[in-house]
Amino acid sequence: MNAVATSEKQGEVGIITIDSPPVNAFGIAVREGLHGAINAFKADDTVKAIVVICAGRTFFAGADISEFGKPPQEPLLGTVFAGIEDAGKPVIAAIHGTALGGGCEFALVCNFRVSVPSAKLGLPEVKLGLLPGAGGTQRLPRIVGPELALDLMLSGRQVGANEALKLGLVDELVPEGALLEGAVAFANRVIAEGRPVTKVRDRRDQLDAVADKAPIFAAARAKAAKASRGYMAPENIIKAVEAAVTLPFDEGMVRERELFVELRDSTQSAAQRYYFFAERQGGKVPGLPADIALRNIAKVGVIGAGTMGGGITMNFLSAGIPVTLMEMTQEALDRGIGTIRRNYENSAKRGRITTDEVERCMALITPSLDMADLSDVDLVIEAVFERMDVKKDIFSRLDAVAKPGAILASNTSFLDLNEIAGATARPESVIGLHFFSPANVMRLLEIVRGEKTADDVLATSLKLAGKIGKVPVVSGVCDGFIANRIMTPRREQCEAVILEGTPPELVDKAIYGFGFGMGPFATMDLVGLDVINRSEPYRTVKQDLLDAGRRGQKSGAGYYDYDENRKATPSPLVANIIADVAAERGIPQSPPLSQDDLIARTLYPVVNEGARILEEGIAIRASDIDVACILGYNWPLYTGGPMFWADSVGLPKIVAELRRLASIHGPQFEPAPLLVKLAESGGSFTG
Ligand code: COA
User: Fold this and answer.
1) Atom 13 of ligand 1, nearest CA residue
2) pTM, two decimal places
3) Stretch among 54-68, 451-465, 650-664 having the lowest mean pLDDT
4) How far does the centroid of ligand 1 lie from the alpha carbon of residue 39, in Å?
């Protein structure tokens, strides 16, 4: 018994309650408390059944993620579970909230599981680069069969109590709010009926139900190769389930352990565990009082019903917050609202929402052609095109109509927020809310804190981000803020190396091989060169391509040639254009760079820019930069983002390479002082 575990008896039922906020993770105190309490009831002959229940918001939410990487301490989860399996009397898990990871595995070890209807169960370890390493890979297939077990463990998805009941993961649902009573009643019935105490480990019925299991594993591998290219955990999960099917339970457990340890000790899993906490850090701003009074956001205004404005609007509608959507012309307004409806209807077709929900969301829009209609909203988000004069004009007019206390936000992706705020008489109420396209899908919200932005405006925006399902990252004001600024060097270097003699397809291959979804040139072709072109004071390949009518996939040609199936092939014409531009600009030619050299050349400058962003105080912490890159630019999560990746590569190595590049290509590669300082002192960005 210890501070987190309490025991009591109700008749013949022993009840163990674990209370370890915030989420009853299986840290050492919980393991010790639970193990001790189980052993005590095991030795108590008056106890005929044991109920394990958790206090607070949830049943065990899994292993304590912060303990991975530290020396393991007994009792290990496996020891606690063995104690339960060998208790010699029925153990019943009483589940509410989310039984995740080790929490779900705990439930699988118990002889019976009861839950309230709102509970959810899941094995999300794959998201942390792990597999369920406390018997989950061996027990789940014995309960739900290998195919479904693979689906659950490879997706990490949560299963609602009703589905869990159908799957046999839960034995009985008890009324909401009456979990303990329900679980004790269930335990008394088990005692009275003398129900056999079967151990999941001894079951084989579900394993033997399908004779030929090879297609199940082949399908799982094919799906994982597509959905999680580059990730190690899915393959190990598949191997562990193969072991469950082919080996006796104890040997399967040994195999699971080997596969688990391999993942636990990998850089990938360290990166993914780091990222779990990184996402949760973004909303924390040092110096912001925890008890600050927030502004009430009951109604929102959005200016601009284009792609961005429409996507932004949907976030609020989906969260049940009414939006006044303003445009310049009826036609633009109708078009914007039509797109929002189509998006919702597509979601309904895919079964993600009901048609009633579509109508409920659409009914929350108030269309408007008049800025005066924004006089009653609590927050206005401007989402018009990126021109300072236009934004300033809007903000000064907005200032005249918005009610006192309203937050005035700009969705600008690079303009000076302080200058925009200066167009109003209330710069303290002005903030940047930079959504990423498509704004209704992308989870990142860059919150740009201006020089004069008030603390309560920032705190309200952070809270609002959570409400609309976004992950916030706070940025100071600079050109491009965190995400767009840090990724600019990658674009510049990719464009530079093709002029030095490395063909675009090799650059794309290297970036794709690193783990990005697409290479930069393939991406530009997809987006459209006309959309992203900017005029430069010198001849560029992109401009030449545009002049040749090569606008990207939509015109059948861009950096690549495309066939009718949009399959890309390298183009000799593009190679000629590149050679011409390079010759005209006098750029020396070198042999194509290797994959490693390409990664260093294009991504070390990103790390360097990250160091500058940190030393200028634009980002609060390195992990915010990682979150911005992963969520905003699809930087491969399993590397942890550029700053975590830099730490794992080794900062001295990066500094040395940047210096070498500076000696060849110029001072833009000079390592930032912070990077040099950390490299020389043995420090790290994220450690
Ligand atoms: N280990 C350690 N800390 C954990 C944790 C875990 N398994 N799960 C959650 N926490 C911490 C979070 O870091 C957060 O800490 P903070 O308040 O200091 O930022 C706090 O618990 C609350 O978590 P949060 O995610 O903000 O709350 P939520 O209500 O939105 O979600 C969960 C709760 C349990 C659904 C969610 O935290 C979760 O998915 N946890 C991970 C579960 C998991 O992967 N388990 C398997 C581990 S191998």
Assistant:
1) 277
2) 0.93
3) 54-68
4) 28
